[in-house]
Every structure is written in structure tokens, then in C-alpha cells.
Specification:
Belongs to the glutamine synthetase family. There is one protein chain. It is built from 25 helices and 17 strands. 51% of the residues lie in helices and 12% in strands. It is globular.
């Protein structure tokens, strides 16, 4: 019996899944997190106040105080059975990293003790040469440092019976360049805070801090573990490189918000329990549109914490799934012909006075503040749409963008008809000089228009990559497997830069004698005119939009190797360097790293396609071909006329043609890879892999393989089919 049928059989025989304990969420939430409430119990006043000041004010912690904090954290962790700790960081591999050390040590006299001091809390030294650096580090230059991020609380991860204390950290090279996602993100958040506070002070002098917030929506597929193990492409690539569409896919639209299958429901409850203990505030779970596709979403959090929680959750989900003999697929497009998976990033800004800056208010003053941040965000997306596109560029996301509800590669902004009208009304006054009477009328008009738009002020547009959804912007183009940090780093940096320019423009008008509100409206009006080309309310999938976007001068960067060029423009270098987020060297390194990741992922997919075609598909097809041939020859030998085996001959011919094309194309693809591998320049090599390998061969080889799947005897087909993988019950 083939691996495929063994896998199917195992589903029938083992469908119960793991037992899930029932626990009240509030009773376990944050139980494995060193929260400020916990810190209050384990730290002396000096250490506690220092930690609070560091978290809320960004102040550095004195090393002597760090010793007290470390002792408190260790005491808490040991009370929960922890014996080891690790600096938990997010290198540019796209996954998390950790090196475990025990609290156990020996004193000079041989006495065994448990110890965790401030130095161990603050800093650790992993091998920097073993992580992607984009040329920042030579192979022989191994030194790198992880440094504690006090703003993200320590937590305990449970793996089986083991428990490890995790300290969230940044990761930098010996010479100080960032080698991770977190360090640039923290810098971008601080840049946004500084620029936003200065603009907020036009309206409220009490604002001293602006915190960007993020609510991610994590989409994923859940497949039986045995079926995944019988698909080398899922194991190696996270997606199926072959697979014919089943008779029933998502066309009946019966999976979305449907009843959750029992095994998946048990898995969801299990990983939610783990997430709650880690302080991840999951709120929503449901079936997504595609069969076997699901989604979870949390309550909004500060961006840095939200990014850590999403990264942590992806790991938790994958581990917990194994307990239920399931596998979570986070690839953006694991199955062709049905919806891919995204990770919508819902972003806003909140003041320390309790105001959501992207929520329309109830007074003319607060509405003017809303318009200021609303229009500045649109202007930022318009001016840096290419950089924002580069932030979501990856080989997996290229499979998704522009297909089955994923937005197109053209970055545009959807605001809805009501706010579009407000912007249009302001723009229409372009030849009118505002005076105090106009100001009063304008504010009155805004007061009438905006407060009623508080939340669901307009329909949603699923084809928009960047949409305003009532009190936040939803960046819909982020891929499901991505680390949110890169898109959040770019978004917060471009908005920070635009707000900085906005303040300079407003101050210049005030210096010329304009009243503050009049000056603000003049600059808002100017920004609306300058950025209106990025606004689009229609169907992003339509061919007409692609032509219209080109007419408007909006970039349509369809592939990752080309999209990543935006990181190397003078505009991008000036943007990130002026904000203190990336140096030129760091930007160039990231460009190199992302290109290398693209090359390797396409290369692996090409190799697995060749392996499956030669070792699975062709043997099955040739076996069936021989059966057809034997049947035809037998009928001939029996003296039957050709009309008696005309159908068999037609099928035999069709199977033979597909076999020949697959064989020839796989061989040609291997040769194309060899040519690409000899290219030294990374960008040129990535483009070659995209155009000469992926674009030239992937779809064509797949077409012929999928045709064979419909022709070859089902008993001879060794790979689990879509109809078997997608309908888990």
C-alpha cells in the first residue's frame, strides 16, 4: 500500500486528537508572563520603579538595578519549575532563535548554586556568523550580541514537560548593526512617537507620548499530519507544487464562518490556552473562505508587543498542532486555485491621553486632529508606496498577491465614499484662501460629516492593499508567514517622516502670519492634492485599474526581486537614515538577505518539483501507460477492430504526451537552474530565478502534472490529493 493510502487510513483510525483542559481565560491569562503586576511581587521598590520607567519612558536600566531585576525574574521562574533561560530573538531568517543556558553553575569551591545575574539578563552572545547578515559579517567574524528589550516582558515557554524562561531581545553585530527585526522596529516606533507628539501638541499640549498599535489577523491552513508527511512538497516548501483542483473547492462558499471541524476545534482550544498563558490576547477564531483555512485575531496591542506575540503564536500553533496529529501551514499559497493566507495588519496610533488618532471625534478640534493624521498617513503611503511594497515582498507572497481575495501588487488606499467626499470637498477649495469665517464654516462642516462615521462608515474593499476601516488602517497585503515587524517598521517610519515634514510646513505658514488652524488646513489641503492618485475605491483586480494605476504613475511591482529595489533608492536611504532606523549599510544588507532568501526558496521549489516529477509522477504515469498499452495490445490480439479500443488509444496518447512534456521541461528547468547558479550578482541571479526558472517552467510543468492526476488510475497516484487534504473532518 502506498504512503498516500496509509496516510488516509491513519486519519480514519486516529481522529480523536489530544485532550484539552477547560480553563477560565481570566484565570490563566498572562500566568507565564513576568508582568508588572508580577514584578511588583518579586522586586524591591527601586528595581520595580526602574523597570516601570524603562518600559514607559524608554530609560536605560542601571546594571546594579538589573541584578535585582534578574534575581526577581529568576525567583519567579523557579517558582514555576524553570531551570533554564534563553535570550529570545528574531533574526533575519524569518523564524525565532534561542540558546538555552541553565541557572545552574559551580562556585570556585565546587558548590552548586542557581544563579541569574544582571549581566545574563541584559546581554548574551550568540554566533552572529551563523545568521543572515547580507555581508555585514564575514564567516570568520562570529561575535554578535543579544540585548534585553525591557518593553517586552519575559515569559515562560512550555515544551512538553520542559519550561524555559525567555527574555525578548534585539540582536546586533559586534560593530553595532542590527541583525534582526526588532531593533529597527523599536527605532521606527520611537521616530513615530517623536513626530506624532509634536503634531499632537498643536491640538493638545498634554500629549507626551504616541503609541502605534497593531491588531494582526493570522490566517492559516490545518492539514492532517500523515497527509502532509506523504507530500514532500508540503514538508520541504510549505506549499503544494502540484495538485489538481477537486470537484468541490470553495465555490459553494460554505466554509466561511461555517461549523469548525471537531479536530480543528480541539486544536484551536489547545493553542489558545497556551497563548493565554503567554499573555497573547486572542479574541476571535473562525473558518476562513477556503476549505481547511482558518483565522485567529487578538485584541489590539502596542506594536512591539503585538509583533512579539504574533511571532510567538506562530511557533506555538505549529507545536500544539503536532499534539493533535495536525500540521499548520502558514505559507501564503499552499494550495492553488483557492484563497491564499494573509496577515492583515490593522494599525493605528494612540496618545497617552487616551485618544485614538485615527478615530473621528465629536468636536471640530478633534476632527481636525483626526484629519491631520488621516491625511498624513495617506500622503506617506503615496510618497513611499514602493518601499511599502518592498516590505511585503517575498517568494511565498508573490504566489498570493492579486489572486483569490489577496490585493494586487499595486499599493493604493481605500477610504470609503464618505471620507472620499470629505477629502474632495477640502480639495475643491484649492483656489480659495481660508479666513477665520471659512475656518468656522469648514470646522462646522467637518463636525457634521465625520462624527457619524465612527466605525462601520463604509463597505469594505477586499481588493485594496491599504484600507481605512473606521478607526484604523488595514494593511491587507502582508503575508501570513511574514514577521509583522518589517511592514510595521516601514509604515511607522514613513508616517513619522511625513508628520515631521507636515509640522515644518505648518510652522512655516504660522511664521508667515497664518493662524494655526488655518495653516493646518492649508497643508492638509496641499497633501490631499499631492496624494490623491493613491486613492482608489474600485476593483483592484480589474484590468482597467492596472491601466489606470499606470496612468497615475503608481508602481506595479509584481515580483520580489524587482520590488526589493525600492530599499536601495536614494529616497529610501534618506528616509531610513534620517529617522535613525537603518543605515545605508543595513539597508543594503537587508536587500541582499531578502534576495538570497528569494533565490533559495525558488531553488528549493524547483528541486522538489523535479524530484516529485521524476520519482512520483512519471513512475505512476508510466505504470498506467503500460496498463493501457497492455489493454490495447490484448484487444488487438483478440482480433477486435480499432473502434473497440479507440478510447484507450486516445487516453494512451494523452498520457504519453504529458509524460514527454514533463520529462523535457524538468530537464530544461534543471539546465536553467545551472545557468542561474553561475551568476555572481545576487540581484541578477534572483531575477534569473524568477524569469528563467519560476515564470518559465513552474506553471507549465504543473499544468501537465495536474492533467495526469485526472487521467492516471487513482490507485497508482502516490501523492495525497486536494480532495483528501482540504476536507478534514
Amino acid at each position: 500500500m502506498s504512503l498516500r493510502f496509509n496516510a488516509i487510513s491513519s486519519i480514519t483510525n486516529d481522529s480523536a486528537g489530544a485532550a484539552v483542559p477547560n480553563a477560565k481565560i481570566t484565570g490563566i491569562f498572562g500566568s507565564n508572563v513576568f508582568t508588572l503586576k508580577t514584578a511588583r511581587e518579586y522586586l524591591a521598590d527601586e528595581a520595580y520603579k526602574s523597570l516601570v520607567t524603562s518600559i514607559r519612558g524608554g530609560k536605560k536600566i542601571d546594571r546594579n538595578v538589573a541584578n535585582q531585576i534578574a534575581n526577581g525574574i529568576r525567583a519567579w521562574a523557579e517558582s514555576k519549575g524553570v531551570t533554564h533561560y534563553t535570550h529570545w530573538f528574531q533574526p533575519l531568517t524569518g523564524t525565532t532563535a534561542e540558546k538555552h543556558d541553565s541557572f545552574f553553575t559551580l562556585k570556585s569551591d565546587g558548590t552548586a548554586i542557581e544563579e541569574f545575574d544582571g549581566a545574563a539578563l541584559i546581554q548574551q552572545e550568540p554566533d552572529a556568523s551563523s545568521f543572515p547578515s547580507g555581508g555585514l559579517r564575514a564567516t570568520f567574524e562570529a561575535r554578535g550580541y543579544t540585548a534585553w528589550d525591557p518593553s517586552s516582558p519575559a515569559f515562560i515557554i512550555e515544551i512538553g514537560e520542559g519550561k524555559t524562561l525567555c527574555i525578548p531581545t534585539i540582536f546586533v553585530s559586534y560593530t553595532g548593526e542590527s541583525l534582526d527585526y526588532k531593533a529597527p522596529l523599536l527605532k521606527a516606533l520611537e521616530a513615530l512617537n517623536k513626530s506624532a507628539v509634536e503634531v499632537c501638541n498643536y491640538f493638545d499640549k498634554n500629549v507626551t507620548k504616541v503609541t502605534p498599535t497593531l491588531g494582526w489577523e493570522q490566517e492559516y491552513f490545518v492539514i492532517d499530519e500523515a497527509l502532509v508527511n506523504a507530500r514532500p512538497d508540503l514538508v520541504q516548501c510549505g506549499r503544494t507544487v502540484f495538485g489538481a483542483a477537486p470537484a468541490k473547492g470553495q465555490q459553494l462558499e460554505d466554509h466561511y464562518f461555517g461549523s469548525i471541524p471537531e479536530r480543528v476545534y480541539a486544536f484551536m482550544r489547545d493553542y489558545e490556552q497556551e497563548a493565554y498563558k503567554l499573555g497573547i490576547p486572542l479574541r476571535t477564531r473562525h473558518n476562513e473562505v477556503a476549505p481547511a483555512q482558518f483565522e485567529c485575531a487578538p485584541i489590539f496591542e502596542e506594536v512591539n508587543i503585538a509583533v512579539d506575540h504574533n511571532t510567538l503564536l506562530m511557533d506555538v500553533m505549529s507545536r500544539v498542532a503536532r499534539r493533535h496529529k495536525l500540521v499548520v501551514l502558514l505559507h501564503e499559497k499552499p494550495f492553488a486555485g483557492i484563497n491564499g493566507s494573509g496577515k492583515h495588519n490593522n494599525w493605528s496610533m494612540a496618545t497617552d491621553t487616551g485618544v485614538n488618532l485615527l478615530a473621528p471625534g465629536k468636536t471640530p478640534k478633534t476632527n481636525l486632529m483626526f484629519l491631520t493624521f488621516f491625511v498624513n498617513t495617506i500622503k506617506a503611503v503615496h510618497d513611499y508606496s514602493d518601499v511599502l511594497r518592498a516590505a511585503i515582498a517575498s517568494a511565498p507572497n508573490d504566489h498570493r498577491l492579486g489572486a483569490n481575495e489577496a490585493p494586487p501588487a499595486i499599493i493604493s488606499v481605500f477610504v470609503g465614499q464618505y471620507l472620499a467626499k470629505v477629502l474632495g470637498d477640502i480639495e475643491s477649495r484649492v483656489n480659495t484662501k481660508f479666513d477665520e469665517q471659512d475656518e468656522a464654516i469648514l470646522k462646522l462642516d467637518l463636525h457634521r460629516s465625520i462624527p457619524e462615521l465612527m466605525l462601520d462608515n463604509t463597505d469594505r474593499n477586499r481588493t485594496s492593499p491599504f484600507a481605512f476601516t473606521g478607526n484604523k488602517f488595514e494593511f491587507r497585503a502582508v503575508g501570513s508567514s511574514a514577521n509583522c515587524a518589517i511592514s510595521m517598521t516601514v509604515l511607522n517610519t514613513i508616517v513619522a517622516n511625513t508628520l515631521k515634514k507636515f509640522k515644518a510646513d505648518v510652522d512655516a505658514l504660522i511664521e508667515k502670519g497664518d493662524k494655526k488652524e488655518i495653516a493646518i488646513m492649508h497643508v492638509i489641503q496641499k497633501y490631499i492634492v499631492e496624494s490623491k492618485n493613491v486613492l482608489f475605491e474600485g476593483d483592484g483586480y480589474s484590468e482597467e485599474w492596472h491601466h489606470e494605476a499606470e496612468r497615475r504613475g503608481l508602481p506595479n511591482l509584481k515580483t520580489t526581486p524587482i520590488a526589493l529595489d525600492a530599499f536601495l533608492t536614494d529616497k529610501a536611504k534618506k528616509l531610513f537614515e534620517s529617522a535613525g532606523v537603518y543605515s545605508h549599510t543595513e539597508l543594503e544588507a537587508r536587500h541582499e538577505i531578502e534576495l538570497e532568501k528569494y533565490i533559495k526558496k525558488v531553488q528549493i521549489e524547483a528541486r522538489i518539483m523535479g524530484d516529485l516529477a521524476i520519482n512520483h509522477i512519471l513512475p505512476s504515469a508510466i505504470k498506467y501507460q503500460n496498463e493501457l498499452l497492455a489493454n490495447v495490445n490484448g484487444l488487438k490480439a483478440a482480433g477486435l477492430p480499432e473502434s473497440a479500443y479507440k478510447s484507450q488509444l486516445a487516453v494512451l496518447k494523452e498520457v504519453s504526451e504529458h509524460i514527454q512534456v514533463i520529462h523535457d521541461k524538468v530537464h530544461a528547468m534543471v539546465e536553467a537552474r545551472k545557468v542561474a547558479n553561475n551568476i555572481d550578482n545576487t540581484r541578477t541571479k534572483a531575477i534569473a530565478y524568477e524569469s528563467q526558472v519560476k515564470a518559465t517552467f513552474f506553471d507549465e510543468i504543473r499544468y501537465h502534472v495536474d492533467k495526469l492526476e485526472h487521467l492516471v488510475d487513482d490507485d497508482a497516484w502516490t501523492l495525497p490529493k486536494y480532495r483528501e487534504m482540504l476536507f478534514l473532518r
